Amino acid sequence: MKKNIELFAAASALLLTPSLVSAAPAGPKTDSVAALRDKALEGDEVAYGIVEGLTTEIGPRQGGTQAEARARIWAVAKLKALGFDNVRVEEYQMPTWVRGAETAETISPFPQRLAVAALGNSGSTGDAGIEAEIVYFPTIDELRAAPDGSLNGKIAFVSHNMKATQDGSSYGAFGPARFVGPNIAAKKGAAAIVIRSIGTDHHRNPHTGNTNFDPGVTPIPAGALSIPDAENLERMIARGKPVRIKLKLTPQNIGMQTSGNVLAEVKGSNPKLPIIVIACHLDSWDLGTGAIDDAAGCGIIGAAALHLKSMDKPKRTVRLLWAGAEEVGIWGGRDYGEKHAGEPHALAMESDFGAGKVWAADFRLPASAAGLRAQIVAALAPLGVVPRRELAGGGADVGAIIAAQKLGIIDLQQDGTKYFDLHHTPDDTLDKIDKAELRQNVAAWAATLALVANYEGELKPEPAQ
Ligand code: ZN
Ligand code: ZN
């Protein structure tokens, strides 16, 4: 009993003695984190400047192409001009696919043109194109259930019912029509496949994106129809007569090409502490100028890191990874994971979901970091950000390094309600960026970085998580 009283007295002294409180390794003062957050919220121009510059001076920048190489040169110059440390490029080689001509039309019973875009890794129809009867699958599961050989010589058409969701979860639920539909159709003998675009708009823009074929499966021509065209095709099919379409897609594989990651740092004061890596991707699809996907992410993390740099030197080094070739197979993220597997990291974060405001925060941290988590939640609350019970997952470009080192993760979840109206379409352009929402992202990131980069405790979760 006496011992408990002594412990209580000691604990009270710790709580009440100002000198002991100020000596605790608590990182930056709460008011300075709030000031940093509010400064970013009210006046950040850096994030928009990055998005404006990249979309204006480079534009589309598909992984492995000369345009992506120009984007790396642009990024190095920009990050150096902003004052970051250790700005550099790490190159790697990757197989590269490029778009060719693309047209689609119904031949019978109702001849019309259809808006189409080839999916990444699509095979070619050749210049003559392919004309064949459509076999309609309202969902990917119905395509999966089709007997082997039943599609011989036919063009599969796979639809879906994707709707907008704030958290973007409908992409995971309906995306397989694109991710694996072409591979399944190829295995069942289809001559080609068209899908309803993986999107939530009703503009006449197809949504491109990568698809993958298993080793040994010859890629078939694979295209996405704009959503209005897919719906029109469904109405034609519902009339009950066989529908024939002609499809011409002439993409090419141009062999191994150079791609690369651009890295930059805010140097920490304690080189013994494992670093924090924050990622976006520098490449984009070729149809738009890659404003929301993912110049916005590079703008957000670049600006937030710069706000961090404006404070006293953080304890941990924060490294920016502007990854190459994410869209076409996460080549940059994997290369980073391999090259840096032996370098101690503590935590990873990623911004790759547009420029919509942050509405939730997910964490994957050890129980010992509950105090840090509470500080972050408090710092984000004035921005309207709520903590969730979901475990943070990171993102594509930090996936390899997270897996290699079992890192802590914080996800600042953006509102994705409108994201899939624009995703991978010609409409992904600068004018879609809401400056105030972009600044809210920078504010949330700056506050979070200020707290984690000055936290000296363990950030990796317990193995059971
Ligand atoms: Zn992206
Ligand atoms: Zn994308």
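^ zinc ion complex. DSSP finds 16 helices and 16 strands in the chain. Residues 140 and 176 are 7 Å apart (CA to CA).
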